[in-house]
Amino acid sequence: VQLVESGGGSVQAGGSLRLSCAASGYNYNYSSYCMGWFRRAPGKERAGVAGIDDDGSTSNADSVKGRFTISQDNAKKTVYLQMDSLKPEDTAMYYCASVNRRTWYPLSANQYNYWGQGTQVTVS
User: Fold this and answer.
1) Do β-strands 9-11 and 119-123 pair in parallel, antiparallel, or remain unpaired?
2) Given a cut of 80, is residue 96 above it in pLDDT?
3) pLDDT of residue 40
4) pLDDT (mean) for 87-101
5) How far apart (Å, rounded) are the C-alpha atoms in residues 86 and 65?
6) Neighbouring C-beta atoms of residue 18, cutoff 10 Å
7) How far is Cα 88 from Cα 65, in angstroms, rounded to an integer?
């Protein structure tokens, strides 16, 4: 499985970005899975941001509820993270992750076994 993130960049506070994570190597039509977005800010530990599984169930961290939305396009095998009302504290490297099963803990990094290379988001 390969995960490739894109869409990061620099924005002013209050702005928006949409991150994309393109997955290959999955059989989306027949397998259970969970996809997650995580972030690591300078000097901080990696933290779960949002997760979505194959039936469309989503989870969001409290810090991003009402501002970030995770979604997926199964035909494109792509997961998105729409980030609105961005704050300077959202500045981090954002990573996409996947696991080929559903999980009760979609915001826990130890649930995932595939990771992308990350995309930087900077909010000033």
Assistant:
1) parallel
2) yes
3) 98
4) 95
5) 12
6) 14
7) 16
d(CA 3, CA 117): 8
Q: Look at the alpha carbons of 48, 115, 46, 16 in this order and tell me if their dihedral is positive or negative.
A: negative
Q: Which of 3, 17, 15, 4 is nearest to 81 (CA)?
A: 17
User: Which residues touch 52 (CB under 8 Å, ≥6 apart)?
Assistant: 34, 35, 36, 58, 59, 70, 71, 72, 79, 106
The SS3 call for residue 11 is strand
Q: Which residues pair with 59 in a beta bridge?
A: 51
Please report the pLDDT score of residue 30 as a whole number.
52
b (16+ CB within 10 A) / e for 78-99 = bbbbebeebeeebbbbbbbbbb
pLDDT band at 26 (very low <50, low <70, confident <90, very high): low
| Residue 63 exposed, middle or buried by CB count within 10 Å (0-12, 13-18, 19+) | middle
